[in-house]
Design a protein that fits this description.
heterodimer, A: mainly alpha, MetI-like fold, 0% strand, flat, B: alpha/beta, Rossmann fold, 2 domains, six-stranded mixed β-sheet, three-stranded antiparallel β-sheet, 35% helix
Chain lengths: 264, 249
Amino acid sequence: MLDVLTKAPVSASTRRGSWFKKVWQALLSISVLLVLWQGAITLWDLPNFILPTPLSVFDVLTERYPVLLKHTWVTAQEILIGLLLGVSIGLFFALQMLLFTPVRRWLLPILIASQAIPVFAIAPILMLWLDYGIASKVAMAAIIIFFPVTTCCYDGLRSTPQGYLDLAHTLGANRWRRLWHIQLPAALPALGSGLRVAVVIAPIGAVVGEWVGSSAGLGYLMLQANARMMIDEMFAALFILSLFSVALYFSVDWLLKKLIPWHA
Amino acid sequence: MTDAFAIKIQHAQLAYGHITEPVLQDLSLSFPANQWTCLLGRSGCGKTSVLRKLAGLLEDAHWHGEILTSDGQPLAGRIAYMAQQDLLLPWLSVLDNVCVGYRLKGKPVTQVIRDQALRLLEQVGMSENAQALPQTLSGGMRQRVALARTLMQDQPVVLMDEPFSALDAVTRHKLQTLSFELLQHKTVVLVTHDPQEAVRLGHQLYVFEGNPARARSLPTLSTQPPRQLDSDTAQLQEQILKRLEVDHA
């Protein structure tokens, strides 16, 4: 067929080469960061309780990994359940605003006003209502992410190309089938953007919750380590939290590219 | 297949939203059954609005006038619409795009329906790409799939709003011929800016002219469409262009 778009086939060796390049770039960035870190300590003769050496942080990671893993598991649960809850609430609100005009008129100002309250200010109230366990941190993570998810999803739902809506009309779709088969899939790229923002900020909600009051989690561990001047342990917890957040972001990004190939 | 029927618009007037001055006035058009009727005119003269009115898509506009069908039945639900953009859903494969009407009506897409869709894809020369996603296809191929989707609807009336305008000359010529062959037993209304396209395909031609616009019927050639381009078609094209130029001035 002459008018087929011809795409140059990507060979396995090209893909492997691109993967190696990415790994090489990442390793180089990490190495530069570690050298700068160690260089700053040597140059300014910084004591361990101000800035620990990369090696001492590595020691904590290897020696105290059972404790770190235990607390990581708690924070990971808070983040993941918070994400699930926040995304579900965001999607629900976006659908309500799309489908029911009076809901949109009332809900949108309330949602915007809710974002004006700093999440730190809500944390103590959530501790009071939901106790010091995992529930209050899940709620924190969900509260911090539902707004970007709601706005992105709502924007996606209401900006379905007019041509698709016309097509649905001439093909005899009712309101619900139009929503399910046209508007929701068309809004997936926008929802994906909201989700990418959500996975980046969800750990903030969980850790802030742990700082205000908790008995487990990486935020709790960091507070305890700070109080006991174990700064290397604090850095180790911070390192794991960053690693988890980055891994979560890239996993979600990869998954979204697979699920929404037309937008990749 | 449902029998095609004729459509008549009588003494219609159209004004948009808050604008009191009508865009179309005293509009009378006749779309005979089993024939292609082409509507030509400058941009913004209201020809697409006529098509959207027939398709039940016209909003924020004041329309006065009668739309009559030769069988006395309402037009709604008996229309297929083909727009300038192919409107293929990027999350569905080519085959699923052809069957999308069934999904949107809540009917199950059975193997019989899929086989029928595959046959239509074969007719438009796209059966090899049945499982491909639309974004991997060229503009011409996408418009072929849109044609298969329109045929799958199997409606007696097909409304086409410049469906070939974004294609290159050769692809456009091929698709015009293919569409004409496949839509022979339907009442087709084609909005186009291209006089050559109108002369090649139209059993009937209308030019929208004046402000507010009125539709003027043009004499057509005695030969049957799709016509070969010869001196007669060239003469008619020139005649149309002259009328359009007067309106643009």
